[in-house]
Every structure is written in C-alpha cells, then in structure tokens.
Amino acid sequence: MSAAIDPIRLEVLKNRFASLTEEMGAVLQRTAFSPNIKERRDFSCALFDRDGEMLAQAAHIPVHLGSMPLSVAAAIRRVDLEPGDMVMLNDPYCGGTHLPDITLVMPIFHGGSSPAFYLANRAHHADVGGISAGSLPLSTEIFQEGLRIPPVRIVRQGRLDGELLAVLLANVRTPVEREGDLNAQIAANRVGERRLLEIIDRYGLSETTCYGQALLDYGETLMASVIAAIPDGCYRFEDVLDDDGAGHGPIPIRCQLTVAGSRVHIDFSACAAQVAGCVNAVRAITLSAVFYVFRLLAPEDIPGSAGCMRPIAVRTVPGTVVDCTFPAAVAGGNVETSQRIVDVLLGALAQALPARIPAASCGSMNNLTIGGVDPRSQQLFAYYETIAGGAGGGPRGRGASGLQTHMTNTLNTPIEALEHAYPLRMRRYALRDGSGGAGQHPGGNGIVRELELLDAAQITIISDRRNQGPYGLAGGAPGRPGRNALLREGQLLELPGKCSLAGRSGDVLIIETPGGGGWGPHNTAGEAGDHG
Fold first, then answer.
1. Number of folded domains in the chain?
2. Which of 100, 191, 347, 424 is most buried as measured by Cβ atoms within 10 A of its Cβ?
3. Confidence of residue 121 (pLDDT cuts 50, 70, 90)
C-alpha cells in the first residue's frame, strides 16, 4: 500500500462505499412490488469506478455480483451517458445472467464531462415474457425465454422514457408488478447517488477516487496472499449436471486449477459443448462463480472489489456449456450451472486444502415457476421461487439444513405472503429428514415443500441433483438426490428434474431438495439425519 494512503481512512471509505450499496438494497426491497424482491430479496447492488471496475458490493446475490461488471462495461461501451441517465439491460450476451435479471446502470458525474463513478443494481423480475410464465422455460434458444434488452436508456436526463417502458410492459404477463419493481430499481440508484455525492463532498473527488483505486490494490494484495497459502500444484475435478431439459445428459463440468505462488490459473476448456437445452452459462456466470469461491477462502472483511480477481486467470472456450454463444438457451445456466461450477472448483481446492473445504452442498436452486389467471382478480400472475437445500458437512462441523447455498443468497417466500399474493396453498413445508449425507460431520438436510394449486396453472421446474446426490469428502457419503412429484386425484406422478406441465385445480406439487454431502468417515450410526 502506498505511503500516501492512510489505512484508517481506507477502512472508513471501504465501509462507506459498502454501506451505500446496502442502503440501495434496503430501498429496493422496501419499494418493490413483487414478493420475489420484497420478500425473497432477489436483487443486488454495487458501486463501480470510472473505468467500470467494481469498488464495493452489498452482501446480496453472488451470481449477480460477480457478473454485473460485464453489464456495466457493456453500458459504458454502448451508450454515451449523460447526467441523470440510467441504462437498462438484461441481455446475457452483454454481461447479463438470464433474462429475468434486469440491470440498471447509472453514471455519477461530479463537475466533469465524464462519469466519475457508476452505480448499478440487478433485480430478478418474476416475468419478462417468453413461452412460459416466470420466464424460466425449458427453452432451446434465447428467443423463447422472454424480452431481450440490449443496453438502452430507460431514464434520460432524469426523466423516465415512457415509450420504452411501454414496450417492456407490453411484453410481460404482470405489467403492474414489473413497473413497480423497475421504479424501485430507479429509486435505489438515486439513493446511492445521493450518498455517493455526500462522500465526494466530504472528502473531495480526487481523494475519493484515489481511495477507490487503493481499495482495488488492497483487494489484489489480500487475494494474492490467500492464493499464496494454497500449495503450488495442478488440481483437477469433474462433476455433472443431470441433463439439459431437452433429452441430453449427463453434462460434464471440468476444471483444472493451477496454483503458482500468488497466482492461479483456472482452465474450463474441457467442459462439455453447449447443449440444446437451457442450462448453458455465459462466461459472466463462470467468472462470477470463480469470484465467489475465492472470496470464500479470504478473510470476511476483504473488500468485494474487482481487485480480488487480478491474481486469477480464467480460461473458457466459446461454444461450451460454461461460455455459450448466441443464441443458446441460458435460462437455467445462471441458476443451475453456476452451482455446479462452484462444486467443481471446491472439489479441486479440496485436494489442495483438505482441512478447509466442505463437501458439496445442495447443488441446485430448485427453481419453480407457476403462472396463470388468479381467479380472485381475473389477472395474470407469475410466481417464482428458489427452494433451499442442505449445506455440505465440512472439517469444522456438520452442514446447515434448509439453507440457500453458494450462488444464491435469497430468503423464502413466507407462507402468508405467498397465499396472499397467489392462488396457491402451502400444504407442507418441512426439513427432509435423513437427506444429508452421512459422515463424521454429516451434510445438512434438504427441504420438503408441497404446494396446492387452487386453480389451473402452468408449472415449470428447473432443478438438478435428481440423479446423483451432492458428493461427500474425506470418506463422507453423498447427500440424497432431490425429487419432484405431483399428487393428482390421489395418484402420485413422479416428475423429472426439468419439466413443464399444465397443472389442474387441486393438484399438489411436491418438491424435495437434495441434502448436503457428508464429510469424514461415518463412525456413529444414525448421525446423518439427527440435525433437524
């Protein structure tokens, strides 16, 4: 660190930057319309420097935060931004993740002709069109997944572009909810702008910018020290996705992780070619998973900045399932493939750091979308939820039960909010006893969630780990695979991990999520399922 940088002031500004992103998130949550954002907190906020390098982030959704820099870069590259502008985009081929995740990027000017900083937030909208309600279909090309938005100005010099908004709202099933959520995103950026200008007014633009750059350097230094503590060597690991939802699978994800001193090179070139179904991931998602995993190894107070990625080189090959090319379907890549990328990275690191790395967690976000006409209002509705599972046991103890793990960090939809907003009734919501893998430190249990449809509706499930459970480590057993089923007129119908079906009034959808893998040899009978 430069002698001109005061470490105390650096710590103060690090926390002020992070605090403004947390306040952005609080505003977004409080003012949003949809249960997915208000209740589940499926959004993320971050601050970027004038070059689009991430300086700070709130503790929101890992798969959003690691990929958002590419969206900011696309906005800077494609739009000549002016004061008061905001750019909207969701295109996965411009740094997005999947189409429901809409990003708003705002330049921050301070007495100059070019932006001094940028603010951005990303929120998962419960529907953006496409062939099935919720916009997470079993697609075979991106055109089926919803409205694809390149970087365009939604706010021009402080005024909302009503014509562009009308185009968006005409292509979604729930326009009132979408408009409310989008206005909440705009409000979040404006609050972030106010707080950032307060910081600049107090410390001056030059000093604020200088300490922003120092944060990047500090993040690089800390991450280099984290990598230097990993034994030099080449570590490989492979895991699979069950299938792509279009009849192909299993789909291997492979990584080779090479550590040399304080640098690491991660090679995903041996991954499967992109597939016909919707589990393809764009490169932004792969980078996001890498960023997440290496931050896990770092101290908790490491700044969440782009500097952390400087000592890490990532190789992907265009046309593979971890770096797909247009117009591949990507709806499930963000939510399922991202989780498997984390699993293979942790599996490789377990060879180098066996005393630190836990067994595999649930490995699926267990995505559920239900849509139709609400008989109470005669309005279209679109419900989206990810369902938690078991965390992997690790060297320090057993895995947690009923937890959103790794690339997701959302809450559940409370039963009261769910039944108020949608024509659904929760029949059962419980931990799935015995689903965690056995071991010295057993894996956590998954969840059982049973939902009754009160009227006919379209159901889509995108889930994984239904064929093979999350792996155990150090002699631990794998977690139990997940299970999907439908109870209809007294008959139980088993469902595949990825499916779309017409639900009838009275149907009960049953989703049982995977438990985490166990860690260490299992020496005590009955240990795996006793952590309710």
1. 2
2. 100
3. very high
